Amino acid sequence: MYVYDQYDQQLLNERVAQFRGQMARYLDGKIPEEEFLPLRLQNGIYVQRYAPMLRVAIPYGLFNAKQMRTLASIARDYDKGYAHFSTRQNVQFNWPALEQCPDILERLASVQMHAVQTSGNCIRNTTTDEFAGVTADELVDPRPYCEIIRQWSTFHPEFAYLPRKFKIAVNAVPGVDRAAVKVHDIGINIVRNEQGELGYRILVGGGLGRTPIIGSEIRSFLPEEDLLTYLDAIIRIYNQFGRRDNKYKARIKILVKALGVERMQELVEAEWQRIKDGEDKLTQAELDRVKSHFTTPNYQTLESNPASLQQAQAQDAAFARWVQRNVRPHKQAGYAIVNLSLKQKGNAPGDVTAEQMDAIADLAEEFSLGEIRSTHQQNLVLADVEQQRLYELWQQAKSNGLATPTLGLLTDMICCPGGDFCALANAKSIPVAEAIQVRFDDLDYLHDLGEIDLNISGCMNACGHHHVGNIGVLGVDKKGEEFYQISLGGNGGDDASLGKILGPSFARDAMPDVIAKILDCYVAQRIDGETFLETYRRAGHTVFKEAVYGKAD
Ligand code: HEM
Ligand code: SF4
Question: Which residues constitute the domain of residue 199?
Answer without folding.
Answer: 123-291
